[in-house]
Design brief:
With 106 residues, the protein is mainly α. It is built from three helices and two strands. It starts with 11 loop residues before the first helix and ends with a strand.
Length: 106
């Protein structure tokens, strides 16, 4: 999921992700998300999703501030593999990454 906002509350994205998982698992209907957001009542939302796999990709500021634009995390061309990827797993990951034109290091 991509979430863009002018500010974030504590666990906001994790709460949205947890609610979306309920819909994806068929535990809630698709329209429930709309009703949930319009109702503005956190107690009606799904569980708070665990943090693993959710990443902050960067901030964007109005041009009026005159701040330089930082490179997007999506545009980075280097991946860092955890140490647990070794042997065949590392070789497979290297082939996958090189097939999309990026580089990596362990």
């Amino acid at each position: 999921i991509d979430v863009t906002a002018n500010g974030f509350l504590y666990h906001m994205v994790r709460n949205i992700a947890g609610s979306l998982m309920d819909v994806g698992l068929g535990e809630r209907p698709v329209g429930w998300i709309r009703d949930l957001l319009q109702g503005r009542d956190r107690t009606r939302a799904g569980v708070t999703a665990p943090p693993g796999g959710l990443y902050f990709l960067g901030a964007r500021y109005p041009e009026a501030f005159g701040l330089p634009e930082a490179p997007s995390a999506l545009a980075c061309q280097q991946w860092v593999l955890p140490q647990r990827f070794d042997g065949d797993a590392a070789a497979s990951m290297a082939r996958l990454i090189s097939s999309v034109g990026t580089s990596f290091r362990t």
